[in-house]
Amino acid sequence: MDVRICSKVTCGASASATLTYDYADSMVVVGPLSTRVEPHGYDLCARHAARLRVPRGWRVVRREPLREVD
What we know:
The chain has a domain at 17-62. It is 7% helix and 29% strand. A hairpin with a 4-residue loop joins strand 1 and strand 2 (27-32). The radius of gyration is 13 Å and the shape is globular. It is mostly beta strands.
């Protein structure tokens, strides 16, 4: 498996989240790292995912990883 790195230009950290935009609803969705590289997704390290800033009037939806049930 290839290591995916953060999409931020000056960052070389391992990605841990994937960001996608929903322009129609002025929304940004940040969730667990997607299982595959998506053309409209941006992989982010934990630091950049936590510090994400969006334009005024936009909202951020944060999705947590699914947890296994015993």
